User: Fold these one by one.
Assistant:
Number 1:
Amino acid sequence: MTAVELIERKRDGGTLTGNEIRWLITEYTAGTVADYQMSAMLMAIFIHGLNGEDLTVWTEAMLTSGEVLELSDIAGCKVDKHSTGGVGDKISIPLAPMVGACGVKIPMMSGRGLGHTGGTLDKLETIPGFRTGFSADQFAILLAEHGVVLGGQSEHLVPADRKLYALRDATGTVPAIPLIASSIMSKKLAEDLDGLVLDVKFGPGAFMEEIDRARRLAETMVEIGDLRGTRVVALLTDMSQPLGREVGNASEIRESIDTLRGEGPADITELTYVLGAEMLVMGEVASSVEEGRTLLEEAVATGRAMEKFAEIVTAQGGDAQVLENPELLPTAYNTDTLEAPESGWVARCDALSIGVGAMRLGAGRERKEDNIDPAVGVTVQAKVGDHVEKGDVLAKIHWNDAYARGIATPLITSAWEISESPVEAPQLIAERIGSQR
């Protein structure tokens, strides 16, 4: 077979056999199939899509393109969670120790922030000494000893995805749902999971703004899991406004610590418990989500969740004193306040404007090679549905660089809209997709 033959068939709306897909991914990863040839294939997939079986084979070929974790010798169910990314989304940080404290193994591989969406690894690395890079053997040892690992994708895990993602970015094919789904699922299934819970976001601050496209992505990923024999459940969640109050890196670690103490914002706490309860059912620790939620609440109330987080931080080289004294985390030198220009109800607290503003302050990256400032960010004081008086604080802007502050402040200021009439807060969780419990 030749790459040109496969491109022509897909261009004309045809299908590829499993062996052809495996050959294509293998040869592209090895460098035999050129970038310009794979670019043509990606555009053909963008136009014509991939059916369920083809997409499953494509995903399988990607996940076996390099190293695959072998965790079957570790007792207990292995369950992970993945979010499609949002503003103020620090859910993984309190979620993993909560669920781990209840007895489910969590081999969590997270990513770094890019654009207006934050990255779990960047947030964790604001803890002095915290390491996220491990070999496959080191990862397995940590999981066996502590039940939870909060790490990043190694150079050898799913190399096909790394090459394809860069190519998709350069060829305008990033929005293709089959390619998004296979990218996410190949990395997650390479973790040797028994179950996966997905947080698929929609709204202005999400990768997919329209709920219909978010639903299609969720359904596609659930189908990939089903066809491969891995249970997958997806929640569609609102990202029209930031999650929680903090948007930054060190500040989101502080808010995660508050959540593990039972003192976190209502939306962070609720979403953590809902996702965690699904994970406990998958992990066969709870027979229902109601029982799972009770177990999570008990883990927080008794301090076991915080103890598990301290154990994880120490095992991964971090300074666990931060959990007792969050002031050890980086703090910005300057803080401005943004005040309500009039009295009324908050009708808009735009996640995208706040996320881009925080990125301009230095909390995020426009390009992968950019450095971040862990101390800067935004504290959201008023969200949709809240009543404010003229002069009340809508947000605090934490900054270190005056030029960055000048660029970011107008963006952040534009995020709020005040209404004369009461406004209802958006529903956080819109839908659940997946097999019945």
Number 2:
Amino acid sequence: MKNKERTMEAIERFIGIVEELRSDHGCPWDKAQTHGSIRMELIEEAYEAAEAMQRFEATGEYENLREELGDLLLHVIMHGVIAEEEGIFTIGDIAEEISAKMIHRHPHVFNAEEWQKQEKKKSWEELKAEEKGHADSKNRPLHQVPASLPALIRAQKLLKKASNHYASRVEKEVSLEQLVLLGLQLGQVEAAWQKEKMMTSMLYHMANIAWQEGINLEKGLMDRMGVMVEALEKE
């Protein structure tokens, strides 16, 4: 890393700013926040950062990406400061845990000599399961996929994980013909609850097909909405 000392000084200064905002003589709004109160803001900031990344890849414009990553960093530091106030963990604990996780998940990089000696090298999923150390990791692997993920992302992640742990029970033989049939049936029902049920089923089947084909359906839909917005704003 270039100018590592300057980077560490900047991060330490930023932590001090957040601590000041949370202090008794700081900002009332910042002081009042909890892990739960800014949960949705964190999700929104993550999406804004993702959009900035997309813009950067398309145009090379990096200023917005830098700004949005800063907003994400604010949330990480804010949650770390709140946790330290609560006496449960510190920002240092966060850094140490993620460092240990990255080292453990990349034995071919950080422990290459021992890794080469292993007759059966552990997969990424096996290494992740070792870290969890609780029953859900082995007995309830699907619970490792957060319920708060956007539905299409969660569906594809669940399908992937289910195929690794419950291969014989995952519905793989889903065809485009089934989607067409559901579409035809959709036009024959009138009740809103029936339409919702059928459209949800169609979305699931589409997620299943996309997963099997290695297609990121969430990204594809987001890109399509971006094209739509751009086209409408030109009119």
